[in-house]
């Protein structure tokens, strides 16, 4: 059945919720945003840096994936998995430039407010802000950024303690069981 995903693993960080839309089933990577219905369910579940558009189309799915793929590669590279490709950064920079914003004075002292220049489409603004969230993680390059290299996961996460290898205990358990099975009984 082609049910929409449940998104239970999303953790409320827009940059990570954005790229954790590819998941491993076993060691196989699976794309979770295949249809407008998938994207719609993700928009309801994820931490978003802008309000979601009411409806999304096939073309929005394509635009989403065209930004998500390079964002995923860059964040993986920053976590020590795979190569940094300047053309990926170029794609994110283009998304930022597609909906430029000014930091305006807000409703009182100490308050600022990002305001788009002109009137970008809601989905264009959302993608630009997601690119901005990814940029902020890449620029600060937190040592907490890590990839959970377990079967059935492969998610990017922020470590809550130094040397944390897995995003959660179930992943650590699955990885240990998998390692045991791969070794086989002969050299266990
Ligand atoms: Zn995990």
The total of helices stands at: 6
For the biggest β-sheet, the strand order reads: 1-2
Tell me the distance between the termini.
Answer: 38 Å
Instruction: Identify the overall geometry.
Output: globular
Estimate the helix proportion, in percent.
40-55%
pLDDT under 50 segments (min length 5)? none
Supply Rg. 18 Å
Bound molecules: zinc ion
Describe the largest sheet: 2 strands, antiparallel
How many individual β-strands? 6
Brief summary:
It is built from six helices and six strands, in the order H-E-E-H-H-H-E-E-H-E-E-H.
Describe the structure.
This protein is of the alpha+beta class and 188 residues long. It has a domain at 14-104 and 112-144. Helices cover 45% and strands 13% of the residues. The protein has helices at residues 14-19, 36-45, 58-78, 86-98, 122-140, 169-183, and strands spanning 22-25, 28-31, 101-105, 112-116, 145-147, 156-158. The strands form three sheets. It has a two-stranded antiparallel ribbon. It has a two-stranded antiparallel ribbon with strand order 3-4. Strands 5-6 form a two-stranded antiparallel ribbon. A hairpin with a 6-residue loop joins strand 3 and strand 4. The longest helix has 21 residues, at 58-78. The protein is globular. The termini are far apart. The relative contact order is 0.15. The structure holds zinc ion. Zinc ion binds next to loops.
